[in-house]
């Protein structure tokens, strides 16, 4: 099909079922972000004949004969689009992952829509800002000033990354052309909360066209690591294997398939046949500490540094400051209650992702959306017996983390 992207005629042959977002990224327009893939977050927003659409739920073939504008094409010959300039002046972004889609939608609002921004912008989500800076940007309320020779301290100066963010040229983890020989990895995950893996039959999966390698628990390093690793690795338990023959939660990785494409890797995962010995599960923190509760890590010795595996306790900490008993005895009113909050997810718009390769010297490189590249480097070195000089972990711009990308 033929269509126009940012004023440039494009010839493309979309794959069956391909969305416009992935086609545009295949063509090198990385300002179109891969976020939720469900039409909810708006990070993939583009203009189709001047109207904002979520390109992740827009079939690619619908662009035939039409004009597409991505954030890279919004600026005019005289400089940034006025809405880009407003986002710069108000610093209407933080990580910036949502900004391309946010700016494109905001640039299309009429005066009536600007009177009700929660409704007009409901198709574009931001995890970082709390939306005040975004609303100020759309309303044209600036927050930055130009620093004079006295320097930036005590001044409200713009972030140096701002122009790249509002123009869509800031590069995040997966915003890079495919490398030669790149394979895609997909995981088969556990449907059980607690089970022992008796066998993984890879026969059918190995016959799926495009599948190169299948990794099962028998291929995993025997060493364990902590998914909550801190600067001092002794602070955390080494309770996790890359692929374990015992699963302890629904969704735990069971096997990995590497293939020429994501579709082939996913087909390979579906073709795997796993035999499980389903074990009793425990689903409540207090119940897990009671006598007779199913033990999830009873097989681990002291080297794992789990405080009390016989009570499912990873650690226990008791702190007393002052005289609580005396304070309660002297208080006019004592209120005692138990409060429960729901689980929360950090929900960064940029999903977790990584690209890894070995260079000509055998050095491992990992480009990852991580907040802890140095800790990741050490963990990989420990797991695979690699000296640190043979491991390089680096991150491009991180599209939100909030602690959720520290593992």
Features:
407 residues, alpha+beta, five-stranded mixed β-sheet, three-stranded antiparallel β-sheet, 12 helices
Task: Describe the secondary-structure layout.
Blueprint: E1 2-5, E2 8-11, H1 20-26, E3 45-48, E4 51-54, E5 67-69, H2 82-90, H3 99-106, H4 111-114, H5 117-120, H6 132-139, H7 162-167, E6 184-189, E7 195-201, H8 203-206, E8 211-215, E9 246-247, E10 253-259, H9 262-271, E11 273-278, H10 285-288, H11 324-330, E12 354-358, E13 364-368, H12 373-384, E14 391-394
Parallel strand pairs: 1-5, 13-14
Antiparallel strand pairs: 1-2, 3-4, 3-5, 6-10, 7-9, 7-11, 8-10, 12-13
Number of strands: 14
Q: Tell me the radius of gyration.
A: 26 Å
Mean model confidence by pLDDT = 95
What is the beta-strand fraction? 15-25%
Helix/strand order, N-terminal first: EEHEEEHHHHHHEEHEEEHEHHEEHE
User: Level of helix content?
Assistant: 10-25%
């Amino acid at each position: 099909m033929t269509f126009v992207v940012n004023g440039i005629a494009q010839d493309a042959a979309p794959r069956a079922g391909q969305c416009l977002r992935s086609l545009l990224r295949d063509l090198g327009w990385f300002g179109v972000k891969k976020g939720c893939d469900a039409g909810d977050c708006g990070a993939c927003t583009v203009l189709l004949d001047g109207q904002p659409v979520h390109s992740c739920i827009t079939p690619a073939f619908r662009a035939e004969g039409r004009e597409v504008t991505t954030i890279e094409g919004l600026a005019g010959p005289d400089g940034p689009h006025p809405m880009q300039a407003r986002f710069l002046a108000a610093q209407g972004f933080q990580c910036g992952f949502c900004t391309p889609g946010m700016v494109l939608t905001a640039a299309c609002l009429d005066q009536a829509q600007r009177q009700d921004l929660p409704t007009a912008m409901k198709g574009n989500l931001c995890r970082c800002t709390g939306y005040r800076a975004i609303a100020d940007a759309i309303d044209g309320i600036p927050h930055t000033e130009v620093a004079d020779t006295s320097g930036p301290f005590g001044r409200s100066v713009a972030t140096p990354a701002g122009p790249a963010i509002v123009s869509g040229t800031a590069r995040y983890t997966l915003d890079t052309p495919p490398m030669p020989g790149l394979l895609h990895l997909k995981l088969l995950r556990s449907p059980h909360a607690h089970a022992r893996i008796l066998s993984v039959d890879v026969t059918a999966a190995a016959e799926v066209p495009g599948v190169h390698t299948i990794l099962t628990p028998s291929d995993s390093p025997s060493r364990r690591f902590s998914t909550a690793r801190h600067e001092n690795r002794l602070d955390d338990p080494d309770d996790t294997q890359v692929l374990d023959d015992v699963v302890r939660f629904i969704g735990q990785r069971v096997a990995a398939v590497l293939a020429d494409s994501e579709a082939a890797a996913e087909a390979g995962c579906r073709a795997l046949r796993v035999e499980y010995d389903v074990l009793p599960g425990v689903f409540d923190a207090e119940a897990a500490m009671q006598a007779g509760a199913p033990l999830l890590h009873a097989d681990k010795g002291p080297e794992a540094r789990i405080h009390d595996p016989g009570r499912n306790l990873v650690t226990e900490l008791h702190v007393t400051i002052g005289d609580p008993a005396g304070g309660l005895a002297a208080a006019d009113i004592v209120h005692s209650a138990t409060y429960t909050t729901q689980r929360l997810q950090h929900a960064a718009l940029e999903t977790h992702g990584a690209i890894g390769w070995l260079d000509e010297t055998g050095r491992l490189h990992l480009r990852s959306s991580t907040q802890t590249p140095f800790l990741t480097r050490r963990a990989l070195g420990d797991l695979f017996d690699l000296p640190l000089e043979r491991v390089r972990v680096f991150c491009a711009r991180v599209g939100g983390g909030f602690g959720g990308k520290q593992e």
